[in-house]
Amino acid sequence: MSEEIDSIMATIRKKDYRFVIGETMHEITLIEQSGQSYVRIDGRELEIRALPVSQHCLSLTLDGRTVTVYQAGEGDRRYIGVSGRQFVLQEAGRSSADPGSPRVQDSRADASLCSPMPGQVVKILVSEGDVVDKNQTVAIVEAMKMENELRASCRARVKKISAQAGGLVDAGEVIVELEAEEKR
Amino acid sequence: MKTRTRKLKKVLVANRGEIAVRVIRACREAGIPTVAVYSEADDRALHMQMADQAVCIGPPPPVESYLNVDAIVEAARRTGAAAVHPGYGFLSENAPFAARCEREGLIFIGPTAEALSLVGDKVASRRTMSKAGIPIIPGMKSKGKAPGRFTAEAKKIGYPVLIKASAGGGGKGMVVVNSSRELRQAVEASMRVAGGAFGDASVYLEKYLPAPRHVEFQILADTRGHVVHLYERECSIQRRHQKIVEETPSVALDDTLRARMGEAAVAAVKASGYTNAGTVEFLLDREGVFYFLEVNARLQVEHPITELTAGVDLVHQQLRVAMGKRLPFEQKDIVPRGHAIECRIYAEDPASGFMPSSGRVAYLKEPGGPGVRHDCGIYSGCQVPVQYDPILSKVIVWAEDRQAARHRMLSALSETVILGIQTTVPFLQDVIAHPEFAAGNTHTDFLEKYLLPWKETIDKRTLDVILTAAALDADQRAREPQRAPAGRRSSFSPWQTGGGWRIGAH
């Protein structure tokens, strides 16, 4: 009996994934069972067939309907294109081994400042080791003639300065790493 | 009478992006060698790759590169360029630049410096047109700085009125005034903005037309006195005075109105001594009355829709006129066919107030098929810099009628894949799909009324698809041995992105 169960169990493979789109976390499970593939999203189970076309292109049949999907990306950050639209999906719950990918804030102590838009760092107003107050301007980023002041969201210590004045940054790129401080 | 024509033995394109690519292609077709100029931010740009020669003219800021007259003239001298095509924007309507080219013995592919000066001065050109019997928007015929004059003028025209900067456009310094009480303050505010933006605080006053249609006529004039118009373009879909969608023909014109406006456009060009390609802009109010607005002394972004319906290559015609040749057609030979629509694709995020988006284009797939044209300045793997106008490309479609053109545009947009930066493609899909667009109700308040602010919506099916695709990809990468991560700003590398799927087909 246990042999039968073992052989049944051996043909099911499940893998959970979590992605952040915008501000929302989504969960999806990939299931492979006896040569068939499924996904489970929101408690629904859908049959899938995937035909790779090229490095960037996949023909995906989901629940009986086929669509061409495009992908590109770096590390945990994927750009998925379908029907002329693009979605940015950030894989969550894995350690960021890729130094190029933007940090997802998953710890409350991490109050790091990211650039809201691609641009050029005009000025960094702090040094490593400084303690900054809530709403204190920490850095200024400029793009398309718009200036953006980045302020600390809480009282924090400057852990590391990851960009320099005159340097170019992308949206979401960490400029100053801050660690929240307890108020004394 | 024999009139001399000259050859263009080499053309320097003083621009970048999609328009530079367009001009380089036309020159290549005509057998004319090309020189591209580029800033340090564009050192791998498509336009500089396509030209026969390329010269770096400075650091990224426009004033140090694409607006750097000395550097451009020097590049022309070094490469032996005989002519300069200015594209649109940048130096294309800069009379001192045109004059400098003339002094240096470079053929400026456009109007003369004198004609540029005349049409560039908004108030002076209103005077010229008025004298030529072309209807202008009721308003002041001279610019001013004394607020007192404005009161009398506004009373004569009737409120609402519009205060505008004389030295420049783009909506800067424009203030709508609804009553005499607001007038003085509005004039002062407008003068402050105008002084700051253009270095000239002169403003003037016009009747304000609420939500008009913006209809412009393409013209071509050779150096022998022949002027033709190539019919109209409807450009009413605008955001902050920036055009987004253009089409031809305009649903608002019947044949009579079209003919009258076309004649007015030709008359405007003749009155200003303008040569080469240009556009005469009109405002059309809700009663079908049209008024001259201004002359755009350059090849415009939206020129392709005219090319597809009129069957004329406007850049080739520009080159011909610059060579001193006669226009190869007369007005009666221009018979437009079908309907064309253009959508401009900007590197902007429509979901965050159209914030500029720059960075690396991780992947690009261009739309295709019959009647689909893509004028594109980017390629897969290229860098989109922050310093310039965010236009990436234009999708232009032609079909037998407006309905077919609309469907073709929706299809083309859905085939367009640009990954890695935010673009306005999904926003454009919503514009073209909107029932009011289908009905042809395109006035300059179209976007405010029906589509702004814009939010991304993801239906359940799309969400299922993208999550599945992302999960399959992540799964695939997890099974592969670790690859060296591609740096976001890595310089040219033959292996542009990682990832891929190899989930077995069923």
Summary keywords:
heterodimer, A: 184 residues, mainly beta, B: 506 residues, alpha+beta, eight-stranded antiparallel beta sheet, five-stranded parallel beta sheet, 16 helices, 34% helix, disordered C terminus
Summary, kept brief:
With about 180 residues, chain A is mainly β.
Q: What does this protein look like?
A:
The complex is a heterodimer of chains A (184) and B (506). Chain A is mainly beta and 184 residues long. Chain A contains one helix and 16 strands. Chain A has one helix at 2-10, and strands at residues 12-21, 24-33, 36-41, 44-54, 57-62, 65-74, 77-82, 85-91, 113-114, 119-124, 131-132, 137-143, 146-151, 156-161, 168-169, 174-180. In chain A, strands 1-2-3-4-5-6-7-8 form an eight-stranded antiparallel beta barrel. In chain A, strand 6 (65-74) and strand 7 (77-82) form a beta hairpin. The radius of gyration of chain A is 22 Å and the shape is elongated. Chain B has helices at 17-29, 46-50, 69-79, 95-103, 113-120, 122-131, 147-157, 180-198, 255-271, 303-310, 314-322, 402-415, 425-433, 435-438, 446-450, 460-479; strands spanning 11-13, 34-39, 53-58, 83-85, 107-108, 161-165, 175-177, 203-207, 213-221, 227-239, 242-248, 276-284, 290-296, 339-346, 348-349, 355-356, 359-360, 363-365, 372-376, 383-384, 391-399, 417-419. Chain B has 16 helices and 22 strands. In chain B, the strands form six sheets. An eight-stranded antiparallel β-sheet of chain B has the order 13-12-9-10-11-14-21-19, with helices on both faces. Mean pLDDT of chain B is 90; it is low at 484-506. In chain B, strand 12 (276-284) and strand 13 form a beta hairpin. By secondary structure, chain B is α+β, with helices and mostly antiparallel strands. The chains are: A mainly beta (184), B alpha+beta (506). The interface between A and B is large, with 64 and 55 residues.
Rounded Rg of chain A: 22 Å
Average pLDDT reading of chain B: 90
Main sheet of chain B?
Answer: 8 strands, antiparallel
Low-confidence stretches of chain B: 484-506
The chain pair forming the largest interface, with residue counts per chain, is: A-B, 64 and 55 residues
How many DSSP helices of chain B? Answer: 16
The class by helix and strand makeup of chain A works out as mainly beta
Radius of gyration of chain B: 24 Å
Helices and strands of chain A, in order, run as HEEEEEEEEEEEEEEEE
Count of DSSP-assigned helices of chain A: 1
